[in-house]
Amino acid sequence: TNRLEGKRALITAAGQGIGRATAEMFIAEGAEVLATDRDTGLLEGLDCETMRLDVRDDTAVREGVARARPDILFNCAGFVHHGTVLDATDDEWDFAFELNVASMFRTIRAALPGMLERGGGSIINMSSAASSIIGAPDRFVYGTTKAAVIGLTKSVARDYIARGIRCNAICPGTVESPSWHDRVAALGEKLGSHEEALQAFVSRQPMGRVARAEEIAALATYLASDESAFTTGHAHVVDGGWSGQ
Ligand code: NAD
Q1: Which chain regions cross the lipid bilayer (predicted)?
Q2: What is the ipTM of this complex?
Q3: What distance in angstroms lies between residue 178's CA and the mean position of ligand 1's atoms?
Q4: Ligand 1 nearest-atom number relative to CA 213
Q5: What is the pTM of this model?
Q6: pLDDT tens-digit profile of 161-172?
Q7: Where do the domains of the chain lie?
Q8: Helices (H), 29-139
Q9: At the fourth CATH level, which superfamily is domain 8-174+212-238?
Q10: Distance between Cα 162 and ligand 1 center (Å)
């Protein structure tokens, strides 16, 4: 406890999954958290300030930053499209870049000046193992956007490295979350077997299981805290050995 004492954090997509697990861990470690999501109903039960924030809305992003005055910015919002390059539509491509990448440009642009004024900050961007780390099957649009997140992260880290700002990306393997359960269900419909779909997701994880959201939140907490003070500009992989074989 108290690893984040005295720090203020802004978290996007904190309603469920990794974002929510991270909000809970940040709170438990003593941070003052503003937990945000597009769907406010999902923020219920979190023991911190909450706010409706759609990361595609620049005005809402600026309001959120003004309210949180964050030392820690966790950009967690993202969406997973299914399919290959031949399946992808222009709309899916545009939506994914808007939500998964441009949203981070906007939140960082809004939060960085305050961090610089106060003399430091830690920015954590949600990427994925399915990015420039590994090519995952049927993740063309998604993997492309998550690779872009790594480039964005390195660029921000480089430009502010001497001014107290750190910027890192998190690259998880498969993580149990509400949207993951939806993806398993959708694949199950396609294959005609829920069990087969579950096996397809689990078998690509060499540990024979997917991650719990808390296992990703633990890395976010480390990157948010001063324990990681010498780490910036990196894609931190937490994928149960998926890409490390
Ligand atoms: P999830 O997909 O189950 O939940 C996503 C949350 O984002 C929801 O609370 C939703 O309301 C919110 N959201 C959606 N659009 C939004 C918007 N425009 N503005 C604000 N909030 C919005 O959660 P998850 O599976 O833990 O995924 C969280 C992040 O982690 C995503 O960026 C995802 O790509 C990434 N990720 C997930 C996995 C996985 O296997 N679950 C693996 C690697 C990376």
Answers
A1: none
A2: 0.99
A3: 9
A4: 26
A5: 0.98
A6: 999 999 999 999
A7: 8-174+212-238, 176-210
A8: 58-68, 90-96, 103-118
A9: NAD(P)-binding Rossmann-like Domain (3.40.50.720)
A10: 31
